[in-house]
């Protein structure tokens, strides 16, 4: 539920540098205006595009519907699985666990 | 800002040139390429102009040069293109040039003529040689009666049969299938004929004419002639066309003078050349010897002639490009001088030209250089003139901005000093393209192609290909480069790379089902409100990779992509309207700001930007575990429709409102937006009418207040005269303003709705692109990847080739073209209709560079 501060700040800062700081340092010349417009527009469009994608996922109304094979493969292949506890993100490597788990259960008849 | 945001400021200038300095000055201006001359005698026929003779002489020189060039190309001599740009020569040098070309042309023509005569001789002699050689065989056979003895020889039999004229018999329809006895009979007959036929003619004929020739002879002479023919193995050169042709030698036996004339007529008709062939073997031998020696003599002479021709052409090839440039420059100068006026004293030429204000200094410098070069003492005069005409539109572009400016100019050249959309297009064009073409893989291919063209710019430009498609790609190399770059970025956000995802940060959705649940259900939908399944914060960069694997991916992506299409569309249109404000401010159209810009922006913001706002509210406020209850999020579209129709949403378990007081606020927005329509429609014309009335009132009052009698009459006279005449005009004017304003308002109001909907093409094309690349992967690449063993490797190799071809051909080229066209439309229609008039005409400076390029491209065609 909601946004995490770090990525929002990071990307806003990144595109802010491109769109606000860099235009100040564009060398003087006939093309200064064009370059400034290009930088500002690039930063704005790219930032907004990222933001929209981020916000669209902030409060998902639906979850992904996955086929059981896909779920099994995800459990086996995506080794870094994030667990969410006590409002802090801890990275837990559960590779061995999930790998063995799926492997064993797959071979055993159920 | 002198660059690109608006076209250059132009001014009309009058130019006085001394007659003797005019040529040099115009030449300098041509090198500069910053002046557009106007035709001062448009009603004078092209043949009656002052320098028509000089132009004709240049045409003649050009013709000679083209002839030379053709000859050089025919001999395959490389033409030296040093790329140097010689200055236009002095007028007096023209005579030298003419003399040189005249001499060269005459020499070449003479050499060619000689060579042709020699070749014709050579051909005749060669043909004669062949005749003597081939007929020798025939005569030998006849004399020694060798035919019978040779009949047994199977290797000779073949030739024998053809020599016997079996073809002729067959053509005559007499012997369709000759059996052995019949053939024997024919041979016997032939022997008999040999003895009793006294006359014969020998000659050479084109090989393809032989069958018809035989048939004709047979029919015309009723079978009373006998034809023998043999092919000449080596091809002979036709001296008039230079083609290699195959010919055959023939000899015809017949009896009697009547037949002789007939045979000769037929030979003539078939363009066969007849040669005298002595009957006696000794004579023949002697003749053959003579022919051989003559051929040898001819060969040496011919070789010398060719050498000479080659020498002449090689010498010419060194200079021909240079000469072309010189002649074309002279021609262009005289052509320009023809546009000028002579003044009364005939001492001086008067020209009118459009000039960029910033470049007046450079032009004056160039004129001074020209004067110095011509040695004239009187300096040329450049006067600025006041004019009511619209100046041409001149955008100073560089190699980077040129392509983008071309996109804008293809729609319509900007009106003079109007806001130019191309600086903004440089980014918005590749960006909107990339929204539709969002795939990092395809973007990378495009980026690499564009990057290669940009890197290899100079060598590629020097090649000057005349392939039209390549030239289009090359002209748009920076556009392609930026489109590729932006596509890579949007692809990264869509998390789409050849329809696969990158899992950089690790998906934020995780599986926490136990194995039995997984195994018993065909598919499972993760619950976003469950903290064990979703981390409750979004994936930091773009789409979560899990969506690429999800079965309900399209539902999720559609809602997202539709929303961003509208968001970017509305912002793009708002941007266009705001650029319009700059136009109104620059041209000091105060009325347009009050009665056009303000209602326009209110209409757009209150209806469509509010729609965008609703989307953001929905994203922030509605989740599965929010206070509003799960799955209670109202549809943005329905809310918007209800808002415009003043309909309260259906009240059920969930509230249709997103915030308190939404209903009242929305009604307020709609009412204000609707009020903007009459504001736009009547505001400007009514205020114009009001202003005019006020002016009239002041004028009339002013006239009567004047105490002076005479002055009063003078003042009243025009005041009473002009308004009466002008009144009708004014009324017409007003109705025109009303109509124009009406059209404009309707266009804007309806346009806002349809243009907003039109931006949905961003979603549609992006969806189509993603689906197409996914289908291609699943149908093609996947079948290759699932093969196992060493055979699988080979299959994968073939499948990959197929997949790669389709990816480049369909997904990058065709989809790219389609996305490009849609982007072009979004810019031309949806964006530019908000502010761009595009009713100017382009600046066409007198420039040698442009003229030479145009001349070169036409000759290459």
Structure description:
The complex is a heterodimer of chains A (110) and B (861). Helix content of chain A is 59%, strand content 14%. Chain A is an alpha+beta fold and 110 residues long. Chain A has two domains: 5-56; 68-107, no CATH class. Chain A has a two-stranded antiparallel ribbon with strand order 2-3. The longest helix of chain A is centred in the middle third of the chain and has 25 residues, at 32-56. Chain A starts with a helix and ends with a helix. The model of chain A is unreliable at 80-110 (pLDDT under 50). Chain B has 861 residues and is α+β, with helices and mostly antiparallel strands. Chain B has four domains: 1-49 and 338-394, Alpha-Beta Plaits (2-Layer Sandwich), CATH 3.30.70; 145-277, Alpha-Beta Plaits (2-Layer Sandwich), CATH 3.30.70; 398-504 and 541-588 and 760-841, no CATH class; 615-747, no CATH class. Chain B has helices spanning 19-32, 52-74, 93-144, 146-151, 154-163, 166-171, 180-196, 210-220, 257-269, 281-337, 360-374, 399-411, 422-436, 440-455, 457-463, 468-475, 477-494, 515-520, 546-549, 553-586, 590-621, 636-645, 662-705, 709-758, 761-785, 789-831, 848-860; strands spanning 10-18, 36-37, 199-206, 226-231, 236-237, 244-245, 247-254, 273-275, 341-342, 348-356, 381-385, 523-525. Classes of the chains: A alpha+beta (110), B alpha+beta (861). The interface between A and B is large, with 54 and 80 residues. Strand 1 of chain A pairs antiparallel with strand 12 of chain B.
């Amino acid at each position: 539920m909601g946004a995490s501060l770090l990525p929002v700040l990071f990307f806003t800062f990144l595109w802010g540098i491109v769109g606000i700081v860099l235009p100040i340092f564009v060398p003087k010349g006939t093309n200064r205006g064009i370059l400034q417009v290009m930088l500002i527009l690039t930063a704005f469009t790219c930032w907004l595009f990222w933001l929209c994608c981020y916000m669209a996922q902030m409060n998902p109304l639906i979850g992904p519907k996955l086929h059981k094979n896909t779920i099994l493969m995800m459990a086996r292949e995506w080794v870094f699985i994030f667990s969410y506890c006590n409002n802090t993100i801890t990275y837990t490597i559960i590779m061995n666990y999930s790998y063995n788990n799926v492997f064993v259960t797959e071979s055993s008849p159920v | 800002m002198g660059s690109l945001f608006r076209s250059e400021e132009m001014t009309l200038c009058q130019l006085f040139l001394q007659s003797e300095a005019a040529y040099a000055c115009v030449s300098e201006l041509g090198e500069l390429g910053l002046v557009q001359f106007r035709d001062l005698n448009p009603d004078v026929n092209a043949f009656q102009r002052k320098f028509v003779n000089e132009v004709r002489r240049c045409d003649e020189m050009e013709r000679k040069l083209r002839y030379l060039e053709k000859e050089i190309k025919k001999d395959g001599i490389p033409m030296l293109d040093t790329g140097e740009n010689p200055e236009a020569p002095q007028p007096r040098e023209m005579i030298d040039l003419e003399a040189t070309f005249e001499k060269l042309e005459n020499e070449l023509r003479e050499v060619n003529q000689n060579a042709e005569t020699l070749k014709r001789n050579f051909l005749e002699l060669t043909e004669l040689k062949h005749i003597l050689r081939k007929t020798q065989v025939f005569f030998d056979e006849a004399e020694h009666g060798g035919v019978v003895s040779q009949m047994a020889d199977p290797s000779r039999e073949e030739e024998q049969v053809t020599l016997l004229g079996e073809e002729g018999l067959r053509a005559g329809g007499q012997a369709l299938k000759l059996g052995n006895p019949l053939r024997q009979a024919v041979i016997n007959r032939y022997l008999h004929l040999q003895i009793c036929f006294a006359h014969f003619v020998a000659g050479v004929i084109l090989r393809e004419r032989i069958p018809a020739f035989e048939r004709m002879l047979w029919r015309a002479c009723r079978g009373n002639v006998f034809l023998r023919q043999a092919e000449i193995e080596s091809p002979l050169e036709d001296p008039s066309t230079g083609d290699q042709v195959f010919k055959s030698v023939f000899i015809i036996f017949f009896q009697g003078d009547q037949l002789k004339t007939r045979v000769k007529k037929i030979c003539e008709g078939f363009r066969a050349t007849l040669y005298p062939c002595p009957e006696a073997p000794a004579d023949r031998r002697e003749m053959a010897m003579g022919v051989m020696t003559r051929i040898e003599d001819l060969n040496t002479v011919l070789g010398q002639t060719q050498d000479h021709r080659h020498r002449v052409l090689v010498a010419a090839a060194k200079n021909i490009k240079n000469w072309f440039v010189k002649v074309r420059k002279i021609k262009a100068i005289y052509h320009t001088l023809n546009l000028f006026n002579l003044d009364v004293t005939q001492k001086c030429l008067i020209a009118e030209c459009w000039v960029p204000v910033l470049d007046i200094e450079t032009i004056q410098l160039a004129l001074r250089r020209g004067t110095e070069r011509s040695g004239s003492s009187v300096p040329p005069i450049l006067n600025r003139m006041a004019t009511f005409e619209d100046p041409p539109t001149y955008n100073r572009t560089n190699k980077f901005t040129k392509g983008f400016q071309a996109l804008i100019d293809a729609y319509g050249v900007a009106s003079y000093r109007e806001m130019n959309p191309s600086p903004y297009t440089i980014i918005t064009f590749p960006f909107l393209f990339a929204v539709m073409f969002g795939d990092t893989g395809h973007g990378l291919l495009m980026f690499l192609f564009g990057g290669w063209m940009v890197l290899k710019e100079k060598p590629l430009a020097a090649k000057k290909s005349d392939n039209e498609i390549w030239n289009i790609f090359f002209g748009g190399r920076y556009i392609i480069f930026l489109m590729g770059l932006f596509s890579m970025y949007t692809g990264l956000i869509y998390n789409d790379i050849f329809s696969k995802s990158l899992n950089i940060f690790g998906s934020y959705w995780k599986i926490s089902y136990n194995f039995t649940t997984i195994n018993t259900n065909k598919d499972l939908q993760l619950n976003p409100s469950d903290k064990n399944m979703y981390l409750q914060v979004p994936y930091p960069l773009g789409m979560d990779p899990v969506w690429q694997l999800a079965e309900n991916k399209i539902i999720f992506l559609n809602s997202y992509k539709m929303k961003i299409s509208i968001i970017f569309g509305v912002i793009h249109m708002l941007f266009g309207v705001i650029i319009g404000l700059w136009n109104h401010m620059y041209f000091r159209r105060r009325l347009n700001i009050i009665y056009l810009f303000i209602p326009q922006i209110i209409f757009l913001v209150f209806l469509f930007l509010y729609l965008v706002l609703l989307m953001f509210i929905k994203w922030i406020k509605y989740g599965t575990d929010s206070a509003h209850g799960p799955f209670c999020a109202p549809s943005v579209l329905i809310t918007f429709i209800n808002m415009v129709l003043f309909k309260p949403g259906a009240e059920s378990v969930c509230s249709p409102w997103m915030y308190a007081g939404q209903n009242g606020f929305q009604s307020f927005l709609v009412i204000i937006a609707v009020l903007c329509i009459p504001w736009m429609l009547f505001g400007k014309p009514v205020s114009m009418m009001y202003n005019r009335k006020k002016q009239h009132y002041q004028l009339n009052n002013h006239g009567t207040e004047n105490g002076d009698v005479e002055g009063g009459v003078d003042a009243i006279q025009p005041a009473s005269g002009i308004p009466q005449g002008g009144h009708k005009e004014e009324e017409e004017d007003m109705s025109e303003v009303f109509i124009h304003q009406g059209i404009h308002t309707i266009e804007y109001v309806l346009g806002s709705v349809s243009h907003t909907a039109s931006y949905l093409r961003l979603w549609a094309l992006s969806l189509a692109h993603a689906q197409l690349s996914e289908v291609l992967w699943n149908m093609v690449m996947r079948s290759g990847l699932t093969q196992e063993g060493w055979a699988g490797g080979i299959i994968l190799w073939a499948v990959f080739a197929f997949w790669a071809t389709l990816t480049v051909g369909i997904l990058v080229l065709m989809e790219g073209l389609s996305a490009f066209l849609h982007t072009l439309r979004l810019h031309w229609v949806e964006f530019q209709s908000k502010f761009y008039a595009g009713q100017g005409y382009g600046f066409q400076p007198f420039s040698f560079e442009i003229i030479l390029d145009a001349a070169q491209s036409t000759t290459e065609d």
